[in-house]
Amino acid sequence: MSEITMTGTLMGVRRSPGSGTTEKIVYIDVEQRPGGGPATPSMVSVLEQDGRRVAGYVPWINYYDIDEAARQEPGAWSTVEPAEHYSALVEWRPYGMRTGGRAASLELAGLLADLAQTPAKLRRTAAMVGQDAVTRTEPGEWTITEVALHVIAADSIMAPRVLQILTQPGVTLPDMDVAEVQRVLGRARTPLEERLAAFEARRKEWIAALDQITAEELEYAGEHTRDGTVTILDICRAMSQHELEHKKQTESIATALGYTLG
Question: Are 131 and 259 in contact (CB under 8 A)?
Answer without folding.
Answer: no
